[in-house]
Amino acid sequence: MPEQLTYLISTSVDPWEVLGRLLLSLLLAGLTRVFYLKMADHPAGSRKLARAFLPLALAMSMLASVFSSSVALALGLVGAMSVVRYRAAIPSLEGLNFLFLTLAIGLGAGTGQGVVTTFAVILILALIALRRWTNGKVLQAHLLEITCPAGHISALHDQFNLILPNYILLEFHAGPQQDKWRLLCHSENLQTIQQLKEALRSISPQVSFNLSDENG
């Protein structure tokens, strides 16, 4: 067993070469992180996920460099490290895509495929940007906190579905006197938010709003 492990661990890799691979992983993962934060559909949870990109790429690159003599083992590391998907709250499938792209960056750079990895990352990010451009405007994400008197849950929910059908309910607290909602919603401009505010206040004038921009 020790002999097999020694065989799998590469002993011919130049330390400076490993350093170069780590720097390339850091650069590409940093580019991916910035791109993800700009393009994410769910900015409320994207910042926490994006913090993992750099250390994840560096760890993957280091492991791939150490076990570079066994491509099968390096690929197996991707499956082993993918358990992070089940141990963390991924805000969307888009976040999961970027997470696996980060793993691929570490694997590609760590195995010495720097040119191919760089080209592939740039191509993938360009395709994502092209898809966003062809789909139209990038929606602005807003964090909306609403407080209203108790007893209007059904009416408010109907207005949410009518005006902002793609909203995400983050928190809801039902109290004896008032209910509190915390929503993540997307819109092209603030006119839709204003429309929602007017609709909800037509239900109850005591509805209060707290709006913050999650894209910045």
Explained architecture:
By secondary structure, this protein is of the alpha+beta class. The chain folds into 2 domains: 133 residues, no CATH class; 74 residues, Alpha-Beta Plaits (2-Layer Sandwich). 62% of the residues lie in helices and 15% in strands. It has 10 helices and 4 strands, in the order H-H-H-H-H-H-H-H-E-H-E-E-H-E. Strands 2-3-1-4 form a 4-stranded antiparallel sheet, with helices on one face. Helix 2 packs antiparallel against helix 3. The chain starts with a helix and ends with a strand. The N terminus is likely disordered.
Strand order of the largest sheet: 2-3-1-4
Major beta sheet, specifics? 4 strands, antiparallel
Shape, please?
Answer: elongated
User: Radius of gyration from the CA trace?
Assistant: 23 Å
H/E topology pattern: HHHHHHHHEHEEHE
Tally of structural domains: 2
Separation, N- and C-terminal Cα atoms: 53 Å
User: Number of helical segments?
Assistant: 10
Structural class by SSE content: alpha+beta
Low-confidence stretches: 3-10
> Whole-number average pLDDT?
75
DSSP strand content: 15-25%
Count of DSSP strands: 4
Quick summary:
This protein is an alpha+beta fold. It has helices at 2-8, 15-39, 43-50, 53-66, 71-81, 84-87, 93-110, 114-134, 153-163, 190-203, and strands at 140-149, 168-174, 178-187, 208-213. The protein has two domains: 2-134, no CATH class; 140-213, Alpha-Beta Plaits, CATH 3.30.70.360.
Tell me the layout of helices and strands:
Elements: H1 2-8, H2 15-39, H3 43-50, H4 53-66, H5 71-81, H6 84-87, H7 93-110, H8 114-134, E1 140-149, H9 153-163, E2 168-174, E3 178-187, H10 190-203, E4 208-213
